[in-house]
């Protein structure tokens, strides 16, 4: 799983005056996962974040402009988060929707899941594509 991080949008978060570069978080197998405090794998799209259940994730941090997918060039991280919100971008063009997390410190865009998290992400991608089809049908119906 790869994750893109941008500077925080929360104006009350620490380091908001820091001009750090936007970073790309590449979550390298086998450590790529989203989990709760007890370190159980958790689907982030099941309402847990909205119910204020603290979810965390781990991975390898890389600059957003680094096109090399090799995680060896990044910094291994653990227990990033908690995740404050998750979001989807990219409905307005292209065939690949982006999934992201927001924490108090940055925004992260997920890319490739690890083998252990692939099943959970497959369900998320299925929901995204179904939502996109519904929006297209609805838009074509009212236009």
Plain-language structure description:
The chain is α+β, with helices and mostly antiparallel strands. It has one domain (2-142). It has one helix spanning 118-142, and strands spanning 2-5, 23-26, 33-35, 56-63, 75-80, 85-89, 98-102, 107-110. The strands form two sheets. Strands 1, 2, 3, 4 and 5 form a five-stranded antiparallel β-sheet that branches.
What would a concise description of this structure say?
The strands form 2 sheets. Strands 1, 2, 3, 4 and 5 form a 5-stranded antiparallel beta sheet that branches. A 3-stranded antiparallel beta sheet has the order 6-7-8, with no helix packed on it.
Helix content: 10-25%
Structural class of the secondary structure composition? alpha+beta
What summary fits the major beta sheet? 5 strands, antiparallel
Mean pLDDT: 76
Number of strands: 8
Share of residues in strands: 25-35%
List SSEs in N-to-C order.
Answer: EEEEEEEEH
- Structural Rg: 16 Å
Q: So what's the overall shape?
A: globular
Unreliable parts:
4-24
For the termini, the CA-CA separation is 38 Å
Number of helices: 1
The count of domains is 1
Chain-wise SSE layout:
Blueprint: E1 2-5, E2 23-26, E3 33-35, E4 56-63, E5 75-80, E6 85-89, E7 98-102, E8 107-110, H1 118-142
Antiparallel strand pairs: 1-2, 2-4, 3-4, 4-5, 6-7, 7-8
């Amino acid at each position: 799983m790869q994750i893109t991080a941008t500077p925080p949008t929360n104006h009350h978060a620490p380091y908001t005056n820091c001009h750090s570069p936007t970073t790309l978080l590449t979550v390298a197998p086998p450590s790529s996962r989203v989990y709760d405090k007890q370190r159980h794998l958790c689907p982030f799209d099941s309402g847990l974040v909205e119910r204020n259940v603290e979810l965390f994730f781990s991975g390898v941090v890389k600059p957003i402009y680094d096109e090399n997918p090799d995680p060896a060039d990044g910094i291994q991280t653990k227990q990033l988060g908690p995740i404050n919100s998750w979001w989807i971008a990219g409905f307005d063009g292209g065939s690949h929707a982006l999934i992201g997390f927001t924490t108090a410190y940055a925004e992260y865009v997920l890319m490739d899941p690890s083998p252990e998290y692939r099943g959970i992400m497959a369900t998320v991608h299925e929901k995204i594509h179904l939502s996109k089809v519904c929006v297209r049908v609805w838009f074509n119906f009212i236009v």
